[in-house]
Structure formats: C-alpha cells, structure tokens
Amino acid sequence: MMSILPITVFGDNILRKKAAPVTEINDDLISIVRDMFLTMNNANGIGLAANQVGVNRRIFIVDISPVEGYEKFKPMTLINPKIVSKSDELEPYEEGCLSIPELKAEVIRPKKIEILYFDLNMREHKLEVDDLVARVIQHELDHLNGILFVDYLDEETQKKIKKHLNKIKNRKLDVGYPITDSSNYIYYK
Ligand code: ZN
Questions:
Q1: Given 24, 102, 106, 140, which residue is catalytic?
Q2: How many domains does the chain have?
C-alpha cells in the first residue's frame, strides 16, 4: 500500500543532519521511494529528499514535468549522488522548499553541473544537467548535507524571514499537506 508521508519542516532535527550513504537497496527503501513520489506530488513539489520524510539516507527524487516546458521530463530517483563538476557561470533563481512553506527567495547557483548517482537498481549514471534540472538537483543534494536554501540568504533577508521561520517551526502555519508533528520525527532508521 502506498501512503502520503508527513513532510519534515524547518526546525526538525533530521533536516540538519548529513544523511547516511545507501549501502543496499531493500524493499523498505523501494517502498519509501514510491511513497516519496506520492508525497511530493500531493504537495505539488518538483523535488524531495529522503530526510524531508524522516529518512536519513542519501536519496532524493526529482520530477519537474509539471513545469511548463519540461512536460517530457522523466521522474528521477538519485541515490548517493555526487556533483563532479560545476560551471563557472552562475544563475539566480527563486527557490522554494516543501519543508519551508510559503517562502520564496532568490538563490545564486552554478547554471550547469555534472553528477554521478545510482538508480534504484544500483546502476551508476553520469549526467550533465543545466537550468531547472541542475537547480533542483543542487537544492536536493544540499538537503542530504543538512543545508537549506535559506542558509544562503543575506543577513538582512534572514532577519526579515525569522518570524515566518519561527511560525513554521512552531507549526503555527496552515500548510496544504501533512507535516510532522514533532521536531524529533524519524520515519525510518
Ligand atoms: Zn527543499
């Protein structure tokens, strides 16, 4: 059976942890990835990292096919991903995050990256991606290292969003999808 999982939010401890490498794909992880897709689609997201559903593993999923111009994009599951090269060219883009609802802010990142990752069959892939795909992958890979996009914002912006972040932390914000009810939430050990 598939289920929509609660999403961890800003302030939850697992979001600040470096996720552990995947050493083998078992049935539990396969079923978690399926649930992650259901959870992401339900929340209208285009990327989701395992620690965003309380799973401390180096896995994330990407599906940008709902975005105009990317209709043909095939959903991806990336396991133990690594960036092997980044372009010198940088690009600004307004990012959001399912773990930080109702906040968007511009983040500057490399426009193009080359990545190495494993799929669910533990087959290795090397891929060069740019623009929105590179953007989402960098954002999700940050999650696996305990980094959130708000960490990149300047001091002045940090001050401005503090109240909002506290609201999220204290679960005082109405979110249109299930979120965790405790900052110590863990789904799978
Ligand atoms: Zn995010």
A1: 140
A2: 1
